[in-house]
């Protein structure tokens, strides 16, 4: 992990993300790309007369505030690259990640009541769906970055193999213990234990070339995937929840609709997403 992006809106929760990103950067000797997006409409930026002077003034004011915000003690030993964009276009976060060859995006979230200010409405979902790299969502200050036990939501379908392999590579470097959580749903989505085991055997055979991780499979029954993942993470004592996503196409298999985003919003634990 060499480069980490963290969007900043000056809120308390974006500072939680900044602190987390800083600790990850120190731990991995990585660069930190601090991103601020200004709320400037196209009309304002194309205005005539005296308006452009006012716009320049507010741009400079915002940039100065951003510079002041980054004067934190916990950033002293971190190489920080400030980036200012004049629009809140959330697909640009992924474009910046590609331009700088970043490895991770760290975002702050307000949790179950929805995300506010920088992440208004479904903006967290937009970043996750556009991002080709993992997105780590945090909603409180994490004094230590010790992800020792991880609950990885898995449907054991072949299309999820690449995301699983990227996650395993990252978590092995952390020295974390990985549990693969399969949520068994009622009615037409229900599978018995033997069917789940067969899915897992096929998955590991193709993904790992062995069945060493069969003991790490944790399957649980619940009414929704979200509840199953959250309840399982508590039972196994997870420090982090990982969820594979299909990006703009939605979430895979039983990860339909906004399950990934719901988990990120309602979990008290940090959540990381991996693009399928």
Automatic annotation (TrEMBL):
CDD domains: USP-like (cd00293). InterPro entries: Rossmann-like_a/b/a_fold, Universal_stress_UspA, UspA. Residues 1-139, 147-274 form the UspA domain. Pfam families: Usp (PF00582). Belongs to the universal stress protein A family. PANTHER family: STRESS RESPONSE PROTEIN NHAX, UNIVERSAL STRESS PROTEIN UP12. This is Universal stress protein. It comes from Flavivirga algicola.
């Amino acid at each position: 992990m060499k480069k980490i992006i963290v969007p900043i809106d000056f809120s308390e929760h974006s500072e939680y993300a900044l602190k987390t990103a800083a600790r990850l950067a120190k731990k991995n000797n990585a660069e930190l790309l601090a991103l601020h997006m200004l709320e400037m409409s196209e009309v304002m930026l194309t205005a005539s007369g005296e308006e452009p002077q006012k716009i320049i003034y507010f741009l400079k004011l915002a940039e100065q505030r951003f510079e002041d915000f980054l004067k934190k003690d916990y950033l002293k030993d971190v190489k920080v690259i400030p980036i200012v964009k004049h629009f809140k276009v959330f697909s640009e976060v992924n474009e910046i990640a590609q331009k700088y060859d970043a490895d991770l995006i760290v975002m702050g979230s307000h949790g179950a009541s929805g995300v506010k200010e920088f992440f208004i409405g479904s903006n967290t979902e937009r970043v996750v769906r556009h991002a080709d790299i993992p997105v780590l969502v945090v909603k409180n200050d994490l004094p230590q970055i010790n992800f020792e036990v991880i609950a990885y939501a898995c449907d054991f379908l072949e299309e999820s193999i690449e995301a699983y392999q990227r996650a395993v590579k990252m978590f092995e470097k952390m020295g974390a213990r990985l549990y693969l959580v399969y949520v068994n749903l009622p009615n037409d989505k229900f599978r018995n234990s033997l069917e789940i085991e067969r899915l897992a055997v096929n998955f590991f055979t193709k993904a790992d070339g062995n069945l060493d991780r069969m003991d790490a499979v944790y399957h649980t029954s619940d009414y929704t995937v979200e509840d199953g993942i959250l309840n399982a993470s508590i039972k196994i004592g997870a420090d982090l929840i990982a969820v594979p996503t299909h990006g703009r196409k939605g979430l895979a298999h039983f990860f339909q609709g906004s399950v990934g985003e719901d988990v990120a919003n309602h979990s008290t634990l940090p959540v990381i997403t991996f693009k399928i």
